[in-house]
Amino acid sequence: MTARFLPSWSLALLAGGLLLAAPASRAEVLTSSDGLQPGLAACYINGMIRHVDEMLDWEDYRDCKPGAPLAELNSKVGKNKVLTSPWSDGVMAKITGYIHLDQTGSYAFVFESNDGVRLEIDGKQVVEDPGVHADQFSEVGHFQVSKPGWYPLTIRYFERKNTSTLRFFWQPPGTDGTMPVVPAEVLAHRGA
After folding, report:
1. Residue 132: which of 167, 170, 164, 109 has the closest Cα?
2. What distance in Å separates the CA atoms of residue 72 and residue 56, rounded to the nearest whole number?
3. Alpha-carbon separation of residue 52 from 105, 151, 181, 186, 188 (angstroms)
């Protein structure tokens, strides 16, 4: 078994056949946007997969080609290029940066995607709709905020063939009604 298939915790002690573990440290939440640039960073790998987990293997031996930053995730296209990649089929996108969560409480997130997508915020998996499918909405995922700030996020997304959709919606604490697209002003990345 490779480390990839182990849970996201570090080994602390292995003695007498007893395995003890300590939780993985979480990334530091930024309290300022100093050093951040608008939009999310994106890099791309070209290849055909059927599940988001397969991206992890590809990332080990294929270079992820940088694309232009993504101001927001609200893309629904026909057979055109996927996001800011040079390809229209067989696209894997690793999207990274920060999301500004400015109040305490539970945030709800959902994606509309074609094909698979996974969202992690501060190292915690929040949304997953990992396989090949036509346009569909994921289940709603929740992220609890106890300290307002800029939280690191990673989105893995792939488009296998034909059309592509990647739309990112949220519901901040204390709001109701329809879930709007996550606005560009709360998304940022570290510049090169």
Report:
1. 164
2. 24
3. 29, 22, 22, 25, 23
